[in-house]
Each structure stands twice: as structure tokens, then as C-alpha cells.
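FORM 7B: Structural annotation worksheet

SECTION A. Query
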Amino acid sequence: MRIPTSTKPVRTNDWKAQAACAAPGIDPDIFHAGERESDQVTQARRVCDGCLVRTACLTAGYEEGDGWGIRAGLTPRQRNAQLRKTNGNIARAVTEALDDVTGLLRHLYQVHTQPTGDGHLLWTDTRHFINIRNKPYTKHQLAWIALHGRPSVGSVMRTCDREGCVAETCLADRTTRQHATRTTAA
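SECTION B. Predicted structure
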């Protein structure tokens, strides 16, 4: 498994080491302040605003049932309201709360892929298109954004012969294909 970076899907609890709140000099108590302690809540939100793993933090907060701490800059009351608004759908609640479609695509990539043990990663969802905020994504488009943190240039194509593979090394957009062609020709 590759070491997660801010542009890679974060698996398990690896995100905690990358969290802005884990940095030296950050007072952990500000993340457990009550909503009436507005100065501490404001301080916590400032830390969260610059954090690279907000999506993973908020997702974990929902999954762990954290009813006390500030997660991704949201108080427990704000998180609960967002979860009710999305009918209990955690992925949608996180996306809506943080306005982070890329984070949702990373989450879907994590949930719907299975390693094969030989370097490939298979897509397990049977849908041809996954609609996020009324925009359809193919499994290859979704994987590209989840892995690179940005849309592809042109279409994304599988470069291996393994049906259903969405491993990073087996996907290429137009720019990647052109670069490979120039490298091969040289």
C-alpha cells in the first residue's frame, strides 16, 4: 500500500498523523470546547480550515459517533444537522458540509475497490455511471480524480489488460498518454 498524501485516498486511520490538530503547539482542548465557548471554537475552526485531511476527519467523526469534539471545523450540532439533511448518508453529509466532491470521490474509490495482490485494483461497483451532484462519472473518471485530486485531461483509459482495474499505474489521461508516446519515441 502506498503512503497516503493529500492527493491520495486516505485509508484506515492514517489521516490522524496528517491532521493539522496533531501539529506541535496546537492545544487539543480547543477541539472539545462547548459551542458557547466561541473563542475556542473559532481557534479550532482556524486550525481545521487549513487541514489537508478534513474529509477523513469528518467522515471518522460520523462513523465513530463523536458527539463532543469539533471535527473539520463543525460542532456536534452542525454535524448532526448535516446528517439529518442528507437522511443519514455520511458520504453526502461530508460532501455537503465541506463542499468537497473530490473527497466524496476518494471515499467512493476507497469503498468500491479491491486489491488483487498483483498490482491491480479492481472496481467492485456494478454501475456504469456514478452520479454526484447531478454529474455522471465513469469508474475511470472517478478513480482519476480520487487519485490525482483533479479532473483528467481528456478521457481516462485503462492501460492494462485487467478488466475493471482502476489502479493508478493502470490509468492514463490524454496528457499521460501523450507523454508516454513521446518518451517511447525518444
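SECTION C. Observations
Confidence is low (pLDDT under 50) at residues 1-11. Strands lie at 113-115, 121-123, 130-132, 135-137, 157-158, 171-172.

SECTION D. Sign-off
Analyst initials: ____
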